[in-house]
């Protein structure tokens, strides 16, 4: 669910359902921030299971076009599943889990073209891509998101990570990568019509725990970085050709 598309009265209805107090006189951005904070502070409310679910029906024709962009037009079990999942709103939150790795390749290729530097995909590290040349290393983390930009890591909630878990979500540490790229597919989950937004780690540091990053990218940060101009600026600065 993309809260930015809701009216203020609708956002207030959501706040009431979540038992969020003191909503009178709040602006749209403030209401969205309050809703996101509710999910952040309530471990039992998973942003993945709420904010990522769409109720919009998608036609088979549009679903096939989007599936073809990811897996090609030939018949395959993967294509069959993806078409069905795109058409079924109840499965929308699962699509990002399945397409996460292939979307990382897409984003790394896109970043390489935009920055003019070779970027290789990486597995088994806190980051998903890194520059592959003699210039200063840049590491990027990639997130597939339909709406809310929640940002906790999926690593195991273990004793090792106890100091990064204060809300039920495990936070990244600030030195694990240099930039975050948010991949947002088209409304029909395709590559065509998708957007990529880049945010430097410096904008995501948790003010209460400076060695960690926030677990939700709040409305103010999103407002700043959710545009082509800011993404271009971040790429210029982070990849060293500002």
Task: Detail the topology: elements first, then pairings.
Blueprint lengths: L7 H10 L10 H14 L5 H4 L9 H12 L5 H11 L4 H24 L3 E3 L7 E3 L7 E6 L34 E6 L10 E6 L4 E2 L2 E5 L5 H7 L2 H11 L4
Parallel strand pairs: 3-4
Antiparallel strand pairs: 1-2, 2-3, 4-5, 6-7
Helix pairs in contact: 1-2, 4-5
Description:
The protein has two domains: 1-45; 99-238, Trna Endonuclease, Chain: A, domain 1. A five-stranded mixed beta sheet has the order 1-2-3-4-5. α1 (8-17) packs parallel to α2 and α4 packs across α5 (77-87). The chain contains eight helices and seven strands, in the order ααααααβββββββαα. The model is unreliable at 46-53 and 164-168 (pLDDT under 50). Helices cover 38% and strands 13% of the residues. It is an alpha+beta fold and 242 residues long. It has helices at 8-17, 28-41, 47-50, 60-71, 77-87, 92-115, 219-225, 228-238; strands at residues 119-121, 129-131, 139-144, 179-184, 195-200, 205-206, 209-213.
How many structurally independent domains?
Answer: 2
Structural class: alpha+beta
The CATH class name of the largest domain reads: Alpha Beta
**CATH architectural arrangement of the largest domain:** 3-Layer(aba) Sandwich
Cα-based radius of gyration, to the nearest Å:
18 Å
Q: CATH topology of the largest domain, anyone?
A: Trna Endonuclease, Chain: A, domain 1
- The strands making up the biggest β-sheet line up spatially as 1-2-3-4-5
The oligomeric state of the chains shown is single chain
| Helical proportion, percent range | 25-40%
What is the count of β-strands? 7
Q: Sketch the topology as an H/E string, one letter per element.
A: HHHHHHEEEEEEEHH
Q: Number of helical runs?
A: 8
Task: Classify the beta-strand content into a percent band.
Answer: 5-15%
Largest sheet: 5 strands, mixed
Mean pLDDT: 85
List segments where confidence is low: pLDDT < 50 over at least 5 consecutive residues.
46-53, 164-168
Overall body shape? globular
Distance between the termini: 35 Å
């Amino acid at each position: 669910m993309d809260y930015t598309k809701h009216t203020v009265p609708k956002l207030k209805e959501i706040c009431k359902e979540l038992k969020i107090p003191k909503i009178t006189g709040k602006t749209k951005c403030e209401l969205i921030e309050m809703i996101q904070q509710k999910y952040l502070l309530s471990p039992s409310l998973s942003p993945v299971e709420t904010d990522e679910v769409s109720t919009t029906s998608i036609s088979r024709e549009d679903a096939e076009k989007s599936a073809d962009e990811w897996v090609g037009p030939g018949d395959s079990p993967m294509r069959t599943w993806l078409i069905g999942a795109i058409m079924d709103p109840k499965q929308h939150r699962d699509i990002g889990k399945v397409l996460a790795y292939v979307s990382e390749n897409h984003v790394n290729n896109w970043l390489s073209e935009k920055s003019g530097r070779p970027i290789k995909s990486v597995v088994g590290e806190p980051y998903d891509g890194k520059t592959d040349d003699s210039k200063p290393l840049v590491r990027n983390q990639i997130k597939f998101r339909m709406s809310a930009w929640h940002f906790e890591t999926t690593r195991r909630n273990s004793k090792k990570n106890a100091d990064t878990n204060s809300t039920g979500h495990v936070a990244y540490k600030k030195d694990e990568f240099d930039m975050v790229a948010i991949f947002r597919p088209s409304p029909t989950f395709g590559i065509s019509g998708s957007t990529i937004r880049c945010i430097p780690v410096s904008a995501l540091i948790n003010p209460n725990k400076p060695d960690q990053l926030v677990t939700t990218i709040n409305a103010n940060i999103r407002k700043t970085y959710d545009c082509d101009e800011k993404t271009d600026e971040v790429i210029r600065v982070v990849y060293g050709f500002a």
